[in-house]
Each structure stands twice: as C-alpha cells, then as structure tokens.
C-alpha cells in the first residue's frame, strides 16, 4: 500500500531532522545540520533493505518506491528556494556571485560536450 511509503518517509524525515538538530548542537550551531540529507540516506537504505529482509507485497513495494522517488526532487526544490531567498537577502554581492557562477557553468557546457565526443 502507498501508506507504507508515506509512513517510511515520515519516519525517515523525523529521524533525519532529529539527528540534524543533534549534530548542529554538537557543533555549537543553532541550526539543523544535514537533517534532510540524513533523512534521504535513511530512506534509501530502508527502501532498499525492506525488500531483502521482509516479505512485503507488490503494492506496498510500489508505494515505498513512489515516495522514495518523489522525496528527492521535493527536497532539491526546497533547497533551491532557500538558496535564492538567501541570495536575495545577502544583497547585491551574493546575487552577482550567483550570476557569475551560472554564466561560467553555461560557458563550460560546449567545452565539456566537445571533450566528451572525442
């Protein structure tokens, strides 16, 4: 069932946020340090190991796979939004740094694609 995928996603997210806060407090930072990354690793580990350790049905496996696959794009979109908001709050220098990095990356696309063809 899809509900198992949602339950696994929720458990991994809560555990990741807890360990991220714990890691932040160990470093003396009043922030979550890597909680979403920890949650993603937990989700990948448990979704791949559930099939080998437990007998789950085909529908349950599809639900877990669906939520495992949809979790990463959502996290990437949330992180990208935070980066843009941080850059706008950081002022003109942060905005210029972002523009320069993206421009240089676009300039390297033809170079890398020509190098790959050889």
List the secondary-structure elements in sequence, H or E. HHHH
Uncertain regions: pLDDT < 50 for 5+ in a row?
Answer: none
User: What is the helical fraction, as a range of percent?
Assistant: over 70%
Number of helices: 4
Report how far apart the termini are: 48 Å
Taking the sheet with the most strands, its summary is:
none
State the secondary-structure class. Answer: mainly alpha
Average pLDDT: 77
What does this protein look like?
With 118 residues, this protein is mainly alpha-helical. It has one domain. The protein is 87% helix and 0% strand. It is built from four helices and no strands. Helix 1 packs across helix 2. The protein is flat, with a radius of gyration of 19 Å. The termini are far apart.
